[in-house]
Write a structure and sequence with these properties.
Strand content: under 5%
Radius of gyration: 25 Å
Shape: globular
Number of helices: 9
């Protein structure tokens, strides 16, 4: 029972008629229902805010990783963000799905960088669910990494850390977090991810 509710409905022995008792119970249930609704609404609002923040963060990562400096129309950007939001929303654990998304983007970046002549098309084309050579095609790479990690837990650990590095830095806005992750990528000797991290944070701050 909610604190204070009992004291609101203390009745004397003269007031214990069935009708008054029923009224009291109904009032208590109404208060509890309203309180539960407020809690659910607050949780839903927080979820939506977190999903929106992760979507924006993921967009900055994929934009910087695959199309940095390219100028897209508002429609192209909207299509990309809508896909990302839907992708994150499809799982109960949207944070885990965010990490998966980022790793798959980084694997695509590695592939294109190591295969001359390969390129990434427009976001609307790359994110198209019918395009097996786009984002959909990165699923098999991600699963292969996951299978390797079952035997070697720290395999490609820096790719997994990148998602956390960007989300933590952008969400807290603390210089200490920025310097921590910059030092991390330097220590890991991953200059490519270090430069990508710096560029992503810069694009996020500039609202690219």
């Amino acid at each position: 029972m909610l604190p204070g509710i009992h004291s609101m409905f203390v009745m004397s022995s003269a007031d214990t008629s069935p009708k008054k008792y029923t009224t009291m119970i109904a009032a208590i249930k109404n208060i509890q229902s309203n309180t539960n609704n407020l809690q659910v609404q607050k949780s839903f609002t927080e979820y939506q805010q977190e999903l929106s923040a992760l979507t924006n963060c993921a967009w900055q990562i994929v934009y910087t990783s695959l199309w940095n400096t390219k100028q897209f129309s508002a429609e192209e950007t909207q299509i990309a963000k809508a896909f990302i939001s839907s992708f994150l929303h499809q799982a109960n654990n949207h944070k885990a799905k965010y990490r998966e998304f980022v790793e798959r983007v980084l694997l695509a970046r590695i592939y294109v960088s190591s295969h001359p002549g390969k390129y990434i098309p427009l976001p609307s084309r790359w994110f198209c669910t019918k395009n097996t050579n786009g984002f959909m095609g990165t699923e098999k790479w991600y699963k292969a990494v996951q299978q390797t990690r079952a035997a070697i837990p720290l395999y490609k650990q820096s790719l997994r850390a990148f998602a956390e590095a960007v989300s933590e830095t952008t969400q807290t806005g603390k210089a200490t977090d920025f310097h921590y992750w910059r030092s991390y990528f330097i220590q890991q000797n991953t200059n490519g991810l270090l430069n990508l991290y710096l560029s992503t944070i810069a694009n996020y701050c500039l609202g690219t």
